[in-house]
Write a structure and sequence with these properties.
Blueprint (H helix, E strand, L loop, with lengths): L5 E5 L2 E4 L15 H12 L7 E10 L7 E10 L4 E10 L2 E12 L32 H5 L3
Antiparallel strand pairs: 1-2, 2-4, 3-6, 4-5, 5-6
């Protein structure tokens, strides 16, 4: 079993692993891994070192199966200082998620200091929290049950 969320299959195709499974249904992915995969596709789409992603939006259109998915990205609106990127994820010939991102020109500005104090860190001890009964058991899923 792979330790990653996806195994690359080539040509924009990816095989989801058990690690993408959401807590509600063993057959469907959690929204985080496919969102990250769409973000990766947009970051690698006609990359420009003089620009950075400023805003990312992802829509999950239907349950994303734990299986093979295809990802494609494109520059929807090219520009000198602002570009719009779009990406889609498909499974079984149906679009399951889509994302968009604005890519903007980098500037040479100094960082702005926060006027708010830094938040406190997490407590040193967390109480043990049991996994909810409804969550998918990875061992059971690996055995096919």
């Amino acid at each position: 079993m792979a330790d990653s969320f996806y195994v690359p299959l080539g040509d924009g195709r990816w095989q989801a692993t058990v690690h993408t499974t959401g807590p509600w249904d063993a057959r469907a992915q959690h929204g985080g891994p496919p969102s990250a995969l769409l973000g990766r596709a947009m970051r690698e789409c006609e990359p420009r070192t003089d620009m950075m992603i400023a805003r990312f939006t992802c829509e999950i259109l239907r349950p994303i199966p734990v299986g093979e998915i295809s990802v494609a990205a494109r520059v929807a609106r090219p520009g000198r200082s602002v570009e719009l990127l779009e990406a889609t994820a498909s499974a079984g010939g149906r679009e399951v998620a889509r994302a968009s991102a604005w890519r903007v020109l980098r500037t040479a500005a100094d960082p702005v200091a926060s006027r708010s104090p830094a938040p406190e860190g997490p407590p040193s001890q967390y109480p043990a929290m049991p996994r909810p009964r409804e969550w998918v058991d990875e061992r059971r899923l690996a055995r096919g049950r």
